[in-house]
Amino acid sequence: MIDLKAAGLTPTEAKCYIALLEMQDCKPSELARIVHESRTNCYKVLDKLESYKLVERFRKDSTWQFRATNPTRLLQLSRERRAEQVKAERELEIHVQTLAGTYTKAHEQPGVRYYVGKEEIREIFAEQVKIGKPIHFIHTIAGIDFYGYDEMHLIRMMAVNAGIHRYALTPDTEKATADYKDTDGRFLLSRTWMQESDYTAPVEWGSFGDTTYIISYGKEALGMTIESPQIAEAFRQLFSLLQRGQIAQPWYHELPRLAQKAAKKD
């Protein structure tokens, strides 16, 4: 027996459909005898196959008879089923995130998700837009090295276009933005500088809403989000401590030295 479950057919439905393919037309009683099923069950199967548009019902000699439609319909059913499954999985993912938040609040246990590769890491930034809360992050130049400047800019602009304010600790490097005083306001960014040697790890840390995230850039990108109000608040408090510590340094007003030096060369 040919397996047609990819099109959503049960073994009995597949058996009846294949039997109909070999006949011009058929009465339910005849089909029941051929496939060794009860007449009642055959009527139910034929109704189902008709709903799939795999059989046609017509009157002949004052009785209802059935004929099979072209088997290419099976491919269309399979594609429709796959599209419905993808849609259902996307909706489930949204529901699970909401339920995970509820679970976290009730049990005080963080919900953790992992991400691998460019496309999945983009989901973290897309989630920032969905949550719509201010973003605090420790920036690494490795994100630009991994994605390329243009693509990384488009990723960051997702939050900007959504009107979300961002707070960043950014290292002073030759690739940093020298004219930040002119541009940061337009990009809804409040920046605190770090010296280049203060933070060299290829890892971005951040928080938005009740979520804390970590993105590690290497040959591949690995990411993790932690859904926990306590952890997110702890990160923001640590961010504030680092921010105040940097601004209090006597050399802070000289930053960004490397970015400005590179801009003069250009």
Give a description of the structure.
With 266 residues, the chain is of the alpha+beta class. It folds into 2 domains: 5-75, Winged helix-like DNA-binding domain superfamily/Winged helix DNA-binding domain (Arc Repressor Mutant, subunit A, Orthogonal Bundle); 110-265, Endonuclease Chain A (Endonuclease, Chain A), CATH 3.30.870.10. The chain is built from 10 helices and 9 strands. A 7-stranded mixed beta sheet has the order 3-9-8-7-4-5-6, sandwiched between helices. Strands 1-2 form a two-stranded antiparallel ribbon. Helix 8 links the parallel strand 5 and strand 6. Helix 1 packs across helix 3, helix 2 (28-35) packs across helix 3 (39-51) and helix 5 (117-131) runs parallel beside helix 7 (149-161). The longest helix has 35 residues, at 73-107. The chain is elongated.
Helix/sheet category: alpha+beta
Estimate percent helicity.
Answer: 40-55%
Spell out the helices and strands N to C.
Answer: HHHEEHEHEHHEHEEEEHH
Instruction: Tell me the count of domains.
Output: 2
Gross morphology is elongated
Give unreliable regions as ranges: none
Strand order of the largest sheet: 3-9-8-7-4-5-6
CATH class category name of the largest domain: Alpha Beta
CATH superfamily of the largest domain: Endonuclease Chain A
**Beta-strand share of residues:** 15-25%
In round numbers, the mean pLDDT is 90
Distance N terminus to C terminus? Answer: 72 Å
- β-strand number: 9
| Tally of DSSP helical segments | 10
Largest sheet: 7 strands, mixed
Tell me which CATH architecture of the largest domain applies here.
Answer: 2-Layer Sandwich
What fold name goes in the CATH topology slot of the largest domain?
Endonuclease, Chain A
Rg over alpha carbons: 30 Å
